[in-house]
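seq/struct pair 1
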Amino acid sequence: MTKDRRHLMRDSHEDQRTADQVPQTPQTMSPSYRLAFADEQFLLRDDLRPVRWQLELLKPELLMNEAGVNSTVVLFGGARIPEPARKVTARTQTLADLSAFYEEARRFAHRVTEWSLETGGTENVIVTGGGPGVMEAGNRGAQEAGGRSVGLNIVLPHEQAPNPYVTPELAFNFHYFAIRKMHFLMRAKAVCVFPGGFGTLDELFEALTLIQTGRMKRVPFLLFGRDFWERIVNWEALAEAGTIADEDLQLFKFVETADEAFEAMRSWTHAGERREHIPGREE
């Protein structure tokens, strides 16, 4: 809410303060007497799930609008990928080898953020899942470049507090995976996917499906690490089987380094159409 907005009617803050000051009686102490918007137990009822969905969609939208985050560059990637200095602690040799992508994510986010700051820092803001691994690397690179970045955390049993590089006022926490994924893509001007596990695959294929079906505008879609992704997904087999179209293989591009990704994003080509600038947000 705009701070200097004036109302003729009492607002909810005033009514909440008044409600907190009433004498304690059997009536005022009853849960039924609590103001609905201030009654946590009421808001957590199963029947209120649609309201919670709306709140979870609206809160980050309003706060990002107020912070001037007009567009984003999305980084998806594994939480278990360590920074190179800690690769000796990796659970597998593959994770140790993949630590190189931590540094590429960091460098890429740094370069994108420097580019963003040239035009005021409101466009192409880095957004990650806010956790460790590749996500940490993205937020870290943005901070080291002197810019802001968004972290979209989610409540999980074993994870994940926001990493320390997320801009505090742009650190969000979600209960619903679906709403979180909407916020990843609502402002996206590019999607960059690093090696990862089930969560990364979920994010990758949902975003690709939205683009494939025309529900989302085509944007630069970059997969870091051809060797990893071609071992995980047999892309050509999908096209050969006819379960995707041949042209769907052109929806994304493999890259290996931060510099290659940055240049690919700046000069994204799809179906013969050259785009000198990244397309804007689609309403």
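seq/struct pair 2
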Amino acid sequence: MNKTQLLQSLKQKGFSEQILNAFESVKREDFIPQELTSNAYEDIPLPIGKGQTISQPYTIAMMLSLLSLQKSQKVLEIGSGCGYVLALISKIVGDNGEVFGVEIIKELAEKSRENLKDFKNIKVFSKSGMFGLKEKSPFNNILISAACEKIPDSLVSQLKDKGIIVAPVGPRHEQSLIAYQKINNKLIIQKQIPGFIFVPFV
């Protein structure tokens, strides 16, 4: 599959213009090991080293769709890996938006900073995502890109009221992608899509 075919496939699945434009303008091959570039636009996850993967484009598009991103928002991704999803988010929220990534694996955080050097509105921190990024909170949206049994309380407290948090929630071998909205300090499930498998939250 090439980039045009991937975009066509995502379009047929009903993803928004803003999501399709982000996928069109960010080169997935810039975020994966060089020996895998011929597979860059296959709709599959790919290894990025250290036992981690870059998610399949369909899954990423689904997460972005559930986040309901708007221009100028402040967004946090936990488990930002190689930085590909941060780049897509950056394109959607625009130059006035702020995008933050937290990646516990130091080598991946360093590599992602290199991958993202041309993106002025993204900052990547190498630390545990369990406690979020309090010094930059509150956020309009938070994306957890790793499987968790429940949403850590620290992340809920860093989300603005009416903000949206999206995460794969469930046991190790199968999760549902869930979009929650924070209303009166409680997370209310807005949408739930079963049948995903993510690497575990470290």
